[in-house]
């Protein structure tokens, strides 16, 4: 019953936020801060599904271009991880997102990038255009290196796309980590705390292109360690 009540209340709000975000983006299409404005709206929904969201991501981190990587757990990331989005950031998402009613149009107008993973030539062209945009517009890009939602399976192996881009663009990798939310239930009144936190930059200056897997493994190791720390902190907070 609680889940049903939440759906009939939260879904219209989500759609309303999509419409507001679309209107903002129509006024300033593809602006470098559209994604930040929209993500900030979505994160306001967290309390409505019983999440006490704690965000520890300084806004100034993306004053210069970076490749941001984050763990991707579930559809709830659009509410939780969204709190960690900073100004001057756009994300890279699969092409199928464009067909989601309302959200697809918003995603495009916000300046985010669709990628066709099934076509290597088109994917490469998209990445080339992305590198150009990063330099011209002082943009950072947000990617989920797992490539799919983990759905409670822990941090999945990383794909190399984000790390190739960081090496080609000669920019640092910025991990932003979410505590585990696999136990979250829309039918539970209190879903406890969720923490979104950035960790130290990983500079790419000392890496060659052939070391892309080494870079990915370093990033994944640091993220695993941080997830463990955040989960322990969340457990302690939830006991209070």
Description:
- The longest helix has 28 residues.
- This protein has a 7-stranded mixed sheet with strand order 1-7-6-2-5-3-4, with helices on both faces.
- Helix 1 packs antiparallel against helix 2 and helix 1 runs parallel beside helix 3.
- The chain has 240 residues and is an alpha/beta fold.
- The mean pLDDT is 92.
- Helix content is 41%, strand content 14%.
- It has a single domain, classed as 3-Layer(aba) Sandwich (Glycerol-3-phosphate (1)-acyltransferase).
Show the helix and strand layout.
Blueprint: H1 2-27, H2 34-43, E1 52-56, E2 67-70, E3 89-94, H3 103-109, E4 113-115, H4 120-137, E5 140-143, H5 161-169, E6 173-178, E7 193-198, H6 212-239
Parallel strand pairs: 1-7, 2-5, 2-6, 3-4, 3-5
Antiparallel strand pairs: 6-7
CATH superfamily: Glycerol-3-phosphate (1)-acyltransferase
Tally of separate domains? 1
Low-confidence stretches: none
Helix content: 40-55%
**What value does the average pLDDT take?**
92
Structural class: alpha/beta
- CATH architecture tag: 3-Layer(aba) Sandwich
The gross shape turns out to be globular
Say what the CATH topology is: Glycerol-3-phosphate (1)-acyltransferase
Total helix count? Answer: 6
N-to-C order of helices and strands: HHEEEHEHEHEEH
The number of distinct β-strands equals 7
The Rg value, from CA coordinates, equals 18 Å
Largest sheet entry? 7 strands, mixed
């Amino acid at each position: 019953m609680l889940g049903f009540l939440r759906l009939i209340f939260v879904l219209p709000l989500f759609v309303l936020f999509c419409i507001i975000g679309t209107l903002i983006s129509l006024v300033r299409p593809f602006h470098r801060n559209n994604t930040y404005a929209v993500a900030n709206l979505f994160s306001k929904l967290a309390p409505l599904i019983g999440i006490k969201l704690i965000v520890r991501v300084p806004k100034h981190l993306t004053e210069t271009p970076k490749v941001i990587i984050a763990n991707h757990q579930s559809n709830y990331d659009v509410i939780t991880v969204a709190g960690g989005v900073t100004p001057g950031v756009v994300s890279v998402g699969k092409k199928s997102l464009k067909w989601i009613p309302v959200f697809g149009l918003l995603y495009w107008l916000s300046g985010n990038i669709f990628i066709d993973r099934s076509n290597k030539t088109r994917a490469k062209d998209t990445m080339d255009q992305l590198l150009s945009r990063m330099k011209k517009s002082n943009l950072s890009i947000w990617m989920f290196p797992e490539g799919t939602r983990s759905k409670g399976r822990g941090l999945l192996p990383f794909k190399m796309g984000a790390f190739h881009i960081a090496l080609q663009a000669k920019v640092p990798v910025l991990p932003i980590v979410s505590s585990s939310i696999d136990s979250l239930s829309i039918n539970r009144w209190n879903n406890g705390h969720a923490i979104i936190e950035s960790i130290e930059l990983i500079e790419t200056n000392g890496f060659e292109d052939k070391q892309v897997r080494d870079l990915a493994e370093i990033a994944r190791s640091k993220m695993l360690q941080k997830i463990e720390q955040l989960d322990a902190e969340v457990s302690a907070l939830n006991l209070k």
